[in-house]
Design goal:
This protein is an alpha+beta fold and 98 residues long. The protein has one helix at residues 80-94, and strands at 2-3, 10-11, 15-19, 25-32, 41-44, 56-67. 15% of the residues lie in helices and 34% in strands. The N and C termini lie far apart (30 Å).
């Protein structure tokens, strides 16, 4: 389940776990098949190998903290090159001072 802006409901959708501190929550980024809008949408080039059903992108400006209990299943893993593109975009656009 991914929270929506209004907090009135949640929608089941794929998400990329960005951080797991070991407690009951994880930090996730929304995954979508909508057209990517750089720089904060990173295209997942190896989407099929990642277990996604269609070409997708990770929306780095759509982050959420969710309870691990709400994670329905693990689809797969993103490739090293896709992960590097996500980290690069985070460093450049979300955390430029790090």
């Amino acid at each position: 389940m991914f929270p929506v802006t209004s907090h009135s409901r949640a929608k089941q959708r794929p998400a990329l776990v960005l951080f797991d501190s070991g407690d009951h929550d994880v930090l996730v980024a929304r995954v979508t098949t909508s057209q990517a809008g750089p720089p904060l949408d990173v295209i997942v080039k190896d989407w099929n190998a990642a277990g996604l059903l269609a070409a997708s992108s990770v929306r780095l400006h759509k982050l959420g903290t969710i309870e691990k209990a709400l994670v329905r299943r693990k689809l797969g893993r993103i490739s090293v090159s896709d992960w590097e593109a996500i980290i690069t975009s985070l460093r450049e656009h979300v955390f430029p001072s790090i």
